[in-house]
Design goal:
This protein is mainly α.
Length: 257
């Protein structure tokens, strides 16, 4: 087990980098290389991002990984860790709670993200925090972590309410972070993976989609959620053209199905 601060930092950095790459690379290779021509009709925006845009996304994502590493060190490698609700034996709370804790993390993160995201869209904050991310008006999977360092701190700081409010096993944090990465990459994929009419389904209407988040990148307003659409629907911030946008993609998919 790593004991020195440098060893712990290397471990956290490697875990963050690998999580980013093992999720981004398969999605990128499948949708932007291997099936680029065959599946291009399924793309939400017809054009593909420029290479220099994807290079910018990857570079800022590396910066974000460094910020995640520093905040991880603060939480898990300083005296602060003694005040977290970590437990090391799953038997202490059982497997049922282990699963429930991950669900709690996801819902807490979704609420945190919605309100932080809306705040960063305030005119006085936008150019300092969120403009870098919105340079990707036609995002690729590499955009999942493409944040200005100030926004990177905001995004990484979800760890604080999680570790101080939810009793957690380290493996539950790991599963939550993997889920976060997968859904984040899906949201920036530029393709819709959910089936036809999912936006109208009794369950689907409450779940965020790649179309929903792609509209946010294209138009800059509305659709602020991460995993769910609860807050967008409750607060009236879901875009009026969301259903129309989903229908347009459904029609494109149906043409060659």
């Amino acid at each position: 087990m790593p004991t020195s601060l440098s060893e712990i930092a290397a471990l956290i950095f490697t875990a963050n980098l690998l999580r980013y790459l093992i999720v981004v690379l398969p999605f990128f290779l499948i949708f932007y290389v291997i099936k680029r021509n065959k599946w291009s009709f399924r793309k939400i925006q017809e054009k593909f991002p420029r290479r220099k845009d994807m290079q910018r996304e990857a570079l800022y994502s590396l910066t974000t990984i460094l910020i995640f590493t520093l905040i991880g060190l603060l939480v898990f490698a300083t005296p602060m860790r003694e005040y977290t609700l970590r437990y090391d034996a799953i038997a202490d709370h059982g497997w049922a709670y282990w699963g429930l804790s991950i669900i709690l993390m996801i819902f807490l993160h979704d609420t945190y993200f919605y309100w932080a995201h809306r705040a960063m869209h305030h005119p006085r904050l936008f150019k300092y925090f969120h403009l870098v991310h919105h340079k990707s008006t036609n995002p690729s999977p590499w955009a999942a972590y493409a944040f200005h360092p100030l926004e990177g701190v905001v995004e990484a700081s979800i760890i604080f309410p999680i570790v101080f409010l939810i009793p957690f096993h380290p493996s539950a944090i790991a599963v939550f972070l993997l889920f976060m990465m997968i859904y984040n990459v899906y949201g920036h994929l530029g393709y819709e993976l959910y089936p036809k009419g999912f936006n109208k389904h009794p369950i689907g209407k409450w779940l965020n989609t790649s179309i929903n988040h792609n509209q946010h990148h294209k138009f800059f307003t509305g659709n602020y959620g991460l995993y769910f659409l609860f807050w967008d629907r409750w607060m009236g911030t879901i875009r009026e053209d969301y259903d129309q946008g989903f229908l347009a993609v459904d029609q494109k998919r149906a043409q060659t199905s």
